[in-house]
Prior knowledge:
The complex is a heterodimer of chains A (198) and B (784).
Chain A: E1 5-9, H1 18-25, H2 34-46, E2 49-57, E3 65-67, E4 72-74, H3 76-82, E5 87-94, H4 97-109, H5 111-136, E6 140-142, H6 158-164, H7 167-170, E7 174-175, E8 181-182, E9 186-196
Antiparallel strand pairs in A: 1-2, 2-5, 3-4, 5-9, 6-9, 7-8
Helix pairs in contact in A: 1-5, 2-5, 4-5
Chain B: H1 4-10, E1 13-14, H2 20-25, H3 37-40, H4 42-55, E2 59-61, H5 75-90, E3 97-102, H6 117-134, E4 138-144, H7 147-160, E5 165-169, H8 183-192, E6 197-201, H9 206-209, H10 213-219, E7 224-227, E8 233-236, E9 239-242, H11 246-258, E10 261-264, H12 272-282, E11 297-299, E12 304-306, E13 312-318, H13 324-332, H14 335-348, E14 352-355, H15 364-378, E15 383-386, H16 390-399, E16 405-410, H17 413-426, E17 429-433, H18 444-460, E18 468-471, H19 483-495, E19 500-504, H20 515-528, E20 533-536, H21 541-553, H22 561-575, H23 584-590, H24 593-604, H25 609-629, H26 635-655, E21 666-671, H27 679-690, E22 694-697, H28 704-713, E23 718-722, H29 729-742, E24 747-751, H30 757-762, E25 767-768, H31 772-783
Parallel strand pairs in B: 1-10, 2-3, 3-4, 4-5, 5-6, 6-7, 7-10, 13-14, 13-20, 14-15, 15-16, 16-17, 17-18, 18-19, 19-20, 21-22, 21-23, 23-24, 24-25
Antiparallel strand pairs in B: 8-9, 11-12
Amino acid sequence: MSGIEIIAADAEEIEINKRELAARLKTDADFNSESVESCKQRLFDAIDYKCAYIKAEVDLSKENLCDFGFMKVKSVKLYKNLFGCREAFVMAMTTGIAVDRLLARLNMLSQAEHFITDGLSSAAIESFCDYACKKMSKGYICVNRFSPGYGDVSLETQKPLLARLNADRILGITLNSAYLMTPVKSITAIMGIKSKLV
Amino acid sequence: MKKITDLIKEKRVYFDGGTGTVLQGMGLPAGQPPELWNISEPEKIISLHNSYLDAGCNIIKTNTFGINRDKFSNYEELIRAGIDCAKKAVSGRTEKYVAFDMGPTGRLLEPLGDLSFEEAVSVFADNVRVAADCGVDLVLIETMNDSLETKAAVIAVKENSSLPVFVTNVYDAGGKLMTGASPSAMIAMLEGLHVDALGMNCSLGPDIMLNIIGEFEKYSSTPVIVNPNAGLPEVKDGRTVYNIGEDDFSDYMKQLAQRGALILGGCCGTTPEFIRKTIAKTRDLPFVYPEEKNITAVSSYTHSVIIGDDPILIGERINPTGKPKLKEALRSGDMSYILNEAVKQTDKGVHILDVNVGLPEIDETEMMIKAVSGIQAVTDAPLQIDTTNFRTLEAAMRIYNGKPLVNSVNGTEESMKNVLPIVQKYGGGLIALTIDESGIPDRAEDRAAIAEKIIARAAEYGIGKKDIIVDPLALTVSSNPESALVTLKAVRLIRQLGVKTSLGISNISFGLPKRELITSVFYANSLQSGLNCAIMNPFSEAMMNTYYAYRALNMLDKGCVDYINYASALQTNTDNQTSENEDLHTCIVKGLKEGAVKYAEILLENTQPLDVINSHIVPALNEIGTAFEQKKAYLPQLLMSAEAASAAFEEVKKKIPSEQTDSSKAIVLATVKGDIHDIGKNIVKVLMESYGFTVYDLGRDVPPEKIRDCALEHNCRLVGLSALMTTTVPAMAETIELLNKTDKSIKTLVGGAVLNQEYADMIGADFYGADAMDSVRYAESFYS
């Protein structure tokens, strides 16, 4: 548990980003309907947002190698993203496993509601991620967050990252053999710290 | 030295406390697995153990929590070194025990994760064999946050050693495991598996555990372990500290001991001082071993269902007897039909679902495993495993997540000698049928005698009366006029034996008109005679009326709240019969499924089925489809409309004689090999079905050969393929090539996020569907 901090939130505390949702549902940003609202209420009953993060030192002394102490990531993109940072927030977060169960259930009952709920829950975890990043970075100037699986950072990076955050114990996040996370609506990310706000 | 299982019956026993916190104080770097020190720094591990033993604990945990073959290639060496350290520490001391510590695998089990149950058992079994070989006093399975993984670990210990098993799970502040189980659900399952002690550890401090201990007090007949953290973690100067000190911790532990916890210790953040003070404050408290609770309970992965005075409804719909659609689903392996039945029954309010998938022409064991695992992914109702095949029963009980009901054992020697050992091993409520080698006795007294015989025999296997539910068998009253009276008398006699009762209620009315009338009155009579469980049809309004009315009349429904809610819902359904502004067309366009079904039924009273399709359903679908194409409606609306149309279409199909059904419009759909994303494919499926296409849905990650075989088997000339990932487009190309080679007249339409017209042309597809509506238009033109 060394240095691991937790951010938790109730579903109602996090406003789902409308643009994010519209992109998932393939609608206009101002689209709403009774069916989306009822799916949202049911999803909110299932959501249990939780984030675990640490503030880690990052050594960028070797080109294209980001050394966090507990893991070394070879990547041009991440190196570029973190350039100039000495520390970074390393984080994992999830909506919780009840959302997976809800999606599995809807997949059997209604493809329409499954599609809507899947879109809602993807937008929800992104919105929670924004919320958590804002909260943890208070007092700092940070670069944009960067997630494993993006660019040249392989999904395998999630293994040491989740282990460091004790994510199976604290968040219930586990990896399958293809390094995909369960619960499915989970995010891992690294957010470089440029400087402290004066 | 006394066995630990004897010691815990005589006195309060103490575990040690945290490992990581103490080792970090000795210099263990953050993020480094402490288990590595078993080999590199054994003297420090021995020193850790000694410090706890000196504090007065009885049991030390080996430093092996995170070790398994998936995480450490040298797992065996690490385990042996860890046990060696612990044994050196207890050597020469009296009444000190070594617990082999086993934590979770770090992976989630199927169906939500990808670790199979047997693989999980095998991972734990490898650890247990090493520990048993080294010689330890017990196994502690700890920090488990999933009930099925806990079960896998317990089975691994039982099958590979004769060591005592203690289990502690991690509950959150709401009193649930991360995957949803309550303490009562875990107690039901773990007592069924005959663990020696059970309880909670980690995650919470002892203060919050005080809110949860009540459920253990109420339900557990097994000694309760409490190993809390030193409160909640806080980060100070980059280090984690806990918010409860030794004095407060030990005060709370005293309260937990007074609430029945018999085995006390600590977890994260606790040190030898926490344990020393806890011992000082609790060792002289009166020792009271938990009394036998005699609760009849079954459980799922979330909750337990207590079988007692409040009547229990067991849904009977997943049983192929007399259900041609279910038979067809079982033969074709259509799990969605079965899972739908499961969800619909639980939505109606059943407490337990009966699952019978026995058909002569299928592999019952394979299907039962699929059904149990699949149903547990979509509903949390406990299941009643219903089979006469002993192999099937064992396979299902093994992978079942919780403590199931078993349907059934009977009074024949063959049944008892096969079923009872399985129930003894895995734990379950047991339905006992009053039938033996001579058949079903005519007299109630003789049925009770068979029940007594089964009860006595079960006792030899350690299965108590609390886990036996006798079914005295309701035979149809049309051919056995005395049947109802005899069965009711048998229910009364059997209740006097101290066991619970169950009946397959619907049998009573077989062969009679308006069966519901007979069945529901018989149900009321049975309840009055003391019946506990009814295997019944929850879609029968008369049965549900009886259930709610009985509970209201017998003080089982405080303030008649459940009855009023039920009656209000019935009233709402009646009030909402029709509306002037609605018809089938508007219901489909608006995506109102229930309305579409209702208006389809009304139209079908005076309209030919094909006219309902051509003049109402298809025009409505075209309207929303065109709006979608013109970007005046969006995909969620299109899907809701398609589902409403499909539901109306199902109503229409019921009125069309099967020989007139047009099955020529068909399509095979699949997400290609290597791709597990199926949302896009499922959207196309819904739309295709709403337009009356027969869809052969092969699911996701489908090999080319399977797609070809399906097209050939059904003589289907249209195949739809979906892929989301660029890495799986080659699998799509491979599938198209195989189909072209097999039969050039088979046409392929492709879609998915990574595809475009250029890609589709490159891989030789006949049509690229930019969206689901596009695909439907092509399929329509293909068959026109």
